[in-house]
Structures are given as structure tokens and as C-alpha cells.
Fold:
Amino acid sequence: MIQKFWEEAEEDEQFWDGGQFGSVSKPDVKALLEGSSINSNVVNAYIDIIKGDLEKSGIRNQGIMTTYVLDSVRDTSPRLKYNNVFEPMMTLLGHCDNIFIPLITTEDYHSTMLRLNKKAKEWIHYNPMRKRTNPEKGKGYENAKEVVSLMGYLIFVMCIDPQ
Structure:
């Protein structure tokens, strides 16, 4: 499907429109096919596809947030925090057992994933570049701590221990 789009699409044609989460067009697909760095809008498109696949297969207790969480946590705008962090998390906490949060650092474009396992009441941080001997010093660990810290209030409200 991606290769066919690449071959047939005009330069400015959209492959995916995610509204407030951006869109994916031919230059984004080119980067993906070449294996070069991709933007968060491409990750968000993939997340959207995964959500659709989960729903089609009847798995409705998994939730995936967008890549905007980390930037929104750091932003001073209460509106961004509400729209990109609090509101989606409150919605997912109401009906999901596992919530996945992709984290992409803009400093070095390193990607990690946070998972909230609601039943086990624990956060799990997946980091492909973690150090084996001291994982909390690896790339992405501080970012994950930052998100978990902000989410602590929501978790408390929903009667889940963030520790």
C-alpha cells in the first residue's frame, strides 16, 4: 500500500490526514521507504492504523496515545496539556487495561514507549537503547519520568497508584 502510494501519488498528495496530529504526504513516505529519520506525524499515522486494527479484531481494552504527549507535558499552555494529555488519558483510563504512550525526544529524535498496565498498577518503560547495567541512565528515562510525574494526578484521580 505504501509503495503503491509512492509510485502513483503527486508530490503534495496526502497519504494520511490526522487532523490536529498532522498529515503524511509523499516526502514523509519517501523518508519511510528510504529508512531515514521520520517525523512524529508518521508515527501518529502508524498509531492510528494500529488503533483501527485493534478495534477491527475486537481488542478494545488497549489504548494508544499520540506522540504529542511529551511536548505537551513540557509546554506551558494548559490547553495543550488538556487536549493532548489529560483528556485522552482520562478517556483511555475509563475503558483500557493497557495504555501505550510513544515518546519522541526532539533533542535527539530518540523514541521510547511508556506502558501503563492498569490492572498491575505499574508503568513500564520500553527503551531500545537502554543500558543493560544501569537502565535508568539510558536515553529516554528522564523523559518517561517526566510524563509519569504529570500523569500521577490523573492516576490518583482514577484510583491507580503511579508507583
About this structure: Residues 78-95 form the longest helix (18 residues). The chain has two domains: 1-59, 61-163. Confidence is low (pLDDT under 50) at residues 159-163. The helical segments are 2-8, 26-34, 40-56, 69-74, 78-95, 141-157.
